[in-house]
Design a protein that fits this description.
By secondary structure, the protein is an alpha/beta fold. The protein has 2 domains: about 1-65 and about 315-415, Alpha-Beta Complex (Aspartate Aminotransferase, domain 1), CATH 3.90.1150.10; about 65-315, Aspartate Aminotransferase, domain 2. The protein contains 14 helices and 16 strands. It has a 7-stranded mixed sheet, with helices on both faces. Strands 1-2-3-15 form a 4-stranded mixed sheet. Strands 12-13-16 form a 3-stranded antiparallel sheet. Helix 3 runs antiparallel to helix 11 (about 300-315), helix 4 runs parallel beside helix 11 and helix 12 (about 320-340) packs parallel to helix 14 (about 390-415).
């Protein structure tokens, strides 16, 4: 395919993010030209029901008209000016109203930047160095956070990235999520040196992992006891399950929260927020430095304002996303059971992932579903997403496609046995 040839000639690895290569599926990359609602279309015009949704950034669906209209109007005023603008103030106001403990906020350009900056702020605030994170959690590609990361690292079967000196990881401690004994031991040994505990309240980077509320409450208690900063990484989950955060919904207040994806309406964004007593340590008021040319870009801010304003009007419909995910997951699991395929589909809210007994079965299933016009994330370690644009027919068509795919898997298995 000529697009693949061009990509390999000009882009490192032919992609700008490894999982987009589809190499672990064993196929050439899928090139998408346009999207509308719950569908995307490749360069040959083939249509797909889209559960990738720009890696979860497009919760309203592609080309949502009010957002497109407002962004076009913003473009007519200029791309950006390098000064504070009214749009970033307004988006911060909307977020604070939805997440009241986020008293002050700082916008950046990605989830990686949000988490990286929040960790720096936690270290500056506590005057400590150690950060505790959990096995297979992914918090962006900052050097010290890639230890035993999930997501793309898991897809590539990498425990960590080359190019990271050992001393960059010396202040990162990784333990198994839910292991209270390990947590207690780490704090007994290092507690007065621990700046922060960093956690995804709902796992989304090693498959979907529903929340362990008791463990999250334990994290809150132990960080309070040692005066460490509790950071919730809600880059994926913020505004996904309700018009707020997981923290707000569960009544567990972290010290800092990291946001991204949905709050930018599909444009590049990240943010971190918390109480004034912590956030005021950022320059220019404090001595923790963080800066960016493009943060608070008025076009991105407008996309965020328009998207969150639309979500505010739809907030009573959030349970529908959970209903769709439950319906989809349970029906595909039932079909798999009938066909003798070992498959579990964990879900939470509008997120779900595939857990086959082995990766080769996932790869076969993925290729068959793609043939039927269903686009999932090309890794069993990545989450899939349902948007407000998905219809009952989309879900039913996906189930119908999976019935054919799982039957085909059984037939292939039978042929191998004979």
């Amino acid at each position: 395919m000529r697009y693949l040839a061009k990509a390999g000639e000009f882009l490192a690895g032919g992609v700008n993010s490894p999982v987009r290569s589809f190499n672990k599926i064993g196929i050439k990359p899928v090139y998408i030209k346009r999207g509308a609602g719950s569908k995307v279309y490749d360069y040959k015009g083939k249509r797909y029901i889209d559960y990738l949704l720009y890696w979860g950034s497009i919760i309203l669906g592609h080309k949502y008209k009010p957002v497109i209209r407002d962004v076009k109007n913003s473009l007519n005023k200029g791309f950006g000016f390098g000064t504070t603008n009214d749009r970033e103030i307004e988006l911060a106001r909307i977020i604070k109203k939805a997440i009241p403990f986020a008293e002050k906020l700082r916008f950046v350009n990605s989830g990686t930047e949000a988490v990286m900056s929040a960790v720096r702020l936690a270290r500056g605030f506590t005057k400590r160095d150690i950060v505790v994170k959990f096995t297979n959690s992914y918090h962006g590609h900052a050097d010290y956070l890639l230890a035993k990361g999930g997501s793309g690292l898991a897809t590539l079967r990498l425990p960590f990235s080359n190019g990271i000196p050992d001393n960059y990881l010396k202040d990162t401690i990784v333990i198994k999520a839910g292991d209270e004994d390990a947590l207690n031991n780490i704090f007994r040994k290092h507690g007065v040196k621990i700046a922060a505990v960093l956690v995804e309240p709902v796992g989304g980077n090693y498959g979907v992992i529903p929340p362990d509320i008791n463990f999250l409450q334990k994290l809150r208690r132990i960080t309070d006891a040692y005066r460490s900063v509790l950071i919730f990484d809600e880059v994926i989950t913020g505004f996904r399950f309700s018009f707020s955060s997981v923290a707000q919904s569960f009544g567990i207040k972290p010290d800092l929260i990291c946001l991204g994806k949905i709050i930018g309406g599909g444009l590049p964004i990240g943010a971190y927020a918390g109480p004034a007593k912590i956030m005021d340590n950022l320059a220019p008021e404090g001595k923790v430095y963080q800066a960016s040319t493009f943060s608070g870009n008025p076009i991105v801010m407008q996309a965020g304002i328009s998207s969150l304003s639309a979500l505010a009007k739809l907030k009573r419909l959030y349970p529908m996303l959970d209903t769709m995910a439950r319906f989809l997951s349970s029906h595909i699991e039932d079909i798999a059971s009938i066909e003798g395929v070992d498959l579990r589909i964990p879900y939470f809210g509008g997120m779900f992932s595939f857990n086959f007994r082995n990766s080769s079965t996932f790869r076969e299933f993925y290729k068959l579903m793609l043939k039927k016009g269903v686009l999932f994330a090309p890794s069993e370690f990545e989450a899939n997403f349902i948007s407000f644009a998905h219809s009952k027919k989309d879900i039913e068509d996906t189930i119908s496609a999976s019935r054919w795919a799982l039957k085909e898997l059984r037939k292939r298995r039978m042929r191998r046995w004979t």
